[in-house]
Amino acid sequence: MARFDRSLRRVIASEHKVFGDTVTYTPAGGGAVELSGIFFTRDTFHVQSLGGLEAALPRVEFASDDIAEAGLDPANGDVLSLEVRGESRTYIVMRVEKPDEGSIVCHLGARS
User: Fold this and answer.
1) CATH number of the domain located at residue range(s) 2-110 in this protein
2) Is 57 helix (H, G, I), strand (E, B) or coil?
3) Which of 37, 55, 89, 95 could be 23's S-S partner, Cβ–Cβ 3.0 to 4.6 Å?
4) Which residues make Cβ contacts (< 8 Å) with residue 4, sequence separation at least 6?
5) Residues 26-39: what's their mean pLDDT?
């Protein structure tokens, strides 16, 4: 199983390097780090429950190995900046999810 997990992490890391966007990740109380992440807009209709309400939130998926190499521990309140459709956008992390061994997903709220 450990061999499969390593293989999965390598595939996910490669996917992010090829298809990912450059994201500037700034942890609360820390310095900015550039990472490759796949940005999903609210147009992808990922619906999450927020205390009884449903909202389609943008999110960024990172390879867990990239996060570990950068020494990051994603948390609510961290800030992400990236270019979306030619515009520089900044988001705040609202929720962090680890759906599998190879990826970390940050659900985002608009900041500017």
Assistant:
1) 2.40.10
2) coil
3) 37
4) none
5) 92
